[in-house]
Write a structure and sequence with these properties.
It is built from 6 helices and 9 strands. By secondary structure, it is α/β, with parallel strands linked by helices. Helix 3 packs across helix 4.
């Protein structure tokens, strides 16, 4: 898939490879992600999906190739505009959802952020719920993770397995939330093993195998 610049380009990769010792996690990846679109990355474990997200998030640097976001920045230079939700929850089970978000908001000192209660409401959770997070369902925990990522209002949203261990109804609720964010103009890149769950919001579906993009097909997202 060739990377060609467009006015809506949020992130572009040119010939990106990532080596861990002698192991090539990514091999010559070239593609582009645009605003207001959702990209779904499919592939077996070890295909390179999470590595690609971490490079886009600025948490890893490519061994070869170039990554540019927001008209010319390297990802690590624009982290304030990028939201990354890892496969691990990165939340504290002994705290309530609001307490978790207040803790993380303090880490964004000097940046304009949503208030924790507003961020929780945006993902359909009641900020007054006083149960510790350890008592939440997996679907509720995933929504708290998303609320944490949304607080600084990122323009590029990177989600690693957002439907992991969710029941069908919780997954549908997550899809509805992401559909609203896509329509609001955010670029969304997510990984999943559950193509059928992401299909309703997918503008493009990319399949990775052994570090390469082996298939790219246009999605038909519900408007």
């Amino acid at each position: 898939m060739n990377a060609t610049a467009s006015q809506n380009g949020v992130a572009t990769l040119h010939g990106v490879s990532k080596l861990f010792g002698s192991f090539a996690a990514l091999k010559q990846i070239s593609t582009q992600f645009e605003a207001g679109r959702c990209y779904v990355l499919l592939g077996e474990n070890g295909a390179g999906k999470s590595t690609l997200l971490r490079i886009l998030a600025g948490l890893l640097r490519p061994t070869q190739g170039e990554v540019r976001v927001f008209d010319g920045f390297e990802p690590h230079e624009a982290r304030a505009r990028i939201g990354y939700m890892s496969h691990a929850a990165m939340l504290y089970d002994e705290l309530t959802a609001e307490e978790n978000l207040r803790y993380f908001r303090d880490l964004y000192e000097g940046r304009e952020c949503l208030e924790p209660d507003e961020s929780l409401r945006r993902v359909g959770l009641d900020p007054e719920l006083k149960r510790p997070l350890g008592q939440y369902s997996q679907g509720m925990r995933q929504r708290v993770s998303l609320a944490r990522v949304l607080m600084p209002a990122p323009e590029l949203l990177l989600l690693d397995e957002p439907f992991s261990n969710m029941d069908v109804e919780s997954a549908r609720q997550m899809v509805a939330l992401l559909a609203g964010m896509r329509q609001a103009g955010r670029a969304i890149v997510l990984t999943t093993h559950q193509r059928e769950l992401a299909a309703p919001i997918a503008d493009q579906i990319l399949t990775l195998h052994a570090g390469r993009i082996t298939a790219s097909e246009k999605g038909t997202p519900i408007q």
